[in-house]
Amino acid sequence: MVWGFFPDDPLSGEDKFYIFARGTYKVGRKGCDVNITKDKGVSRVHAEIVVDAMISAPLQTKSSILSSKVRIRDCSKYGTFINKNLTSMEKIHELPNKETSLREGDLVSFGTGNAIYRFSFVPLIFFACCSDPTQVNHALEDKLSSFGAHITYHLSQECTHVLVDQLMPVKEDMLDAIVAKKPFVLGSWVEFLAEKNIRTELPSCESFAPTLTFEGVSVKLADPRTRENCLEGYTFLLDSKPVYKFMNRLRSLLEVSGAKILSIDGFNLNSQSSDCGENDHVVCVIPEQSSDDWFNKLGSLLRVNETGLISAILNGRLDPAMLKSPCGEYSCYLLDTCVN
To answer: Dihedral of the CA atoms 61, 64, 65, 71 (nearest 10)?
Structure first.
């Protein structure tokens, strides 16, 4: 877990701070690791945050029972105060060695009391996708542990990121992570994260997003915000029978991408079912193995194959050229409608 030192008032205009390494971090008015600008009673070097160890906690461990291995030391004229019980502020400069330990949720006040920060644990839990357990990157594991991140080889809701290699084949648990809106990163993001001991923000994952291989095709993975609602305005017709390779996950992927889903069996081609939005593009999703009966009931509906549709979701964009129609010139009209 990374240590977080955050303004208690998010509208104060003060920065957040994330600590990634052991060491002593100066808190003060100017030229410090943690700069505080809104309180004139803050000394040039007002206090020190001393991190004795970074803790990589298992998923089951509650932050409230962890010893933080972090101390705060007062170096100021006007004092540093800590609130451990939400009722009164304790004067750190009156304690032995003018210091005390910090725990999750502690409030720390500097100077006249206008600068109040909350000490927090920031969990970084990486689900590492590894096709071969014998090929675990131990150097990367050590790097993660060095700044308090935890690595697991089983996806859970607690996971904050998904760690993959470039051009890794997409597996079913990776699709589950897409549904859960987890950001995917390459190992180079971990290296970049560890370059600075303290940061005012977690670096964006977007520049470190991987290209994955899905069903033999390379797909650049979009970030969760881009994937979200990337299929808004589309209604996809699915067969109610289990004919799709990724049946349950396909529905979930469509839902988190903002699409509507209907059963093709109950769809009225002539009335364009009232469950569709007025301006929705209705597209039938074709299984990889399709019979003639399938195509006989589609009429002039646009269609897309299952693999292509999932690839579009991973990429965060559905190219209208992927949508096929058997109706010649009418196909061009529909595709133009999709673009506009």
So the answer is: 120
